[in-house]
Amino acid sequence: MMNKYVKNIAAVLILIATISVFTYYFVRHPATWQQLGNVAPANLVVIFGLYVCFTVSLALITLSTVGLCNVRLRRIDGLLLTMWSSIINFFGPLQSGPAFRAVYLKKAHGISLKNYGLATLMYYAFYATYSGLFLLSGIIPWPILALLSAIGIVLLVVFLRSPLKIAKQLRALPLNQAYKLALATFLQVAITALIYTVELKSINPGITVHQAIIYCGAANFALFVSITPGAIGFREAFLVFSEKLHHISPATILTANVIDRAAYVSLLGLLFLIAISLHVKKRFSVTSELDK
Length: 292
Fold this sequence. Notes:
By secondary structure, the protein is mostly helical.
């Protein structure tokens, strides 16, 4: 309990520090505001539309993850669950969206936390692999990356055929759902890279797609260590520290992230209104379970 309290305090302090740094930077660099003002409204519409597609990819991931646990959700239920957990994940404490989904699925569909945890770990493995390849493309040429990926697949097959307990558990999972999860996760990462490409090019047209792909890989890894809403502060730090890989200036990074946060929060606001109108909160209520 104390550990959770300390983490909540730390998240608030990091959030306040990040907002302070943003404010200080924009006050000291007023030209950045001009960059924001020069972003074409059409680009903002495209970014918003891509975030809608991003939400659909998350719904596909939810359906595939649940499918790995031998449970089938209706597509509309998968979409609504994704919408509501995305809102909780951003505005709730310590990015609690995955925990909410786990508790709800246990309560409503009898999926054990162990099985759902294993399926979620598989999703994170795919996510980390794709993000790692994107990031490493700034260091290693694509042909060598392709060769390393092929070697990785061979090693994975060997591991899955091993007598290890976790390998046996993974072999018991529905193979078709694993394929779907792999494709849905790649779709999520690809859409994220496309979103960042539009955001970065709207600020600096000289930025290449390859730079945006490397940028995406660095940004994605921030989610594994973040305790703030939407990885605020952590994502920016990862991007600044990886500047030598993507060669995008801190000024462009901060400006692009302001655009990104605004677009995503706007989408969450729309999803919240839709969720309220459909009584989603009541439908997916797990308050009593979370309080235990």
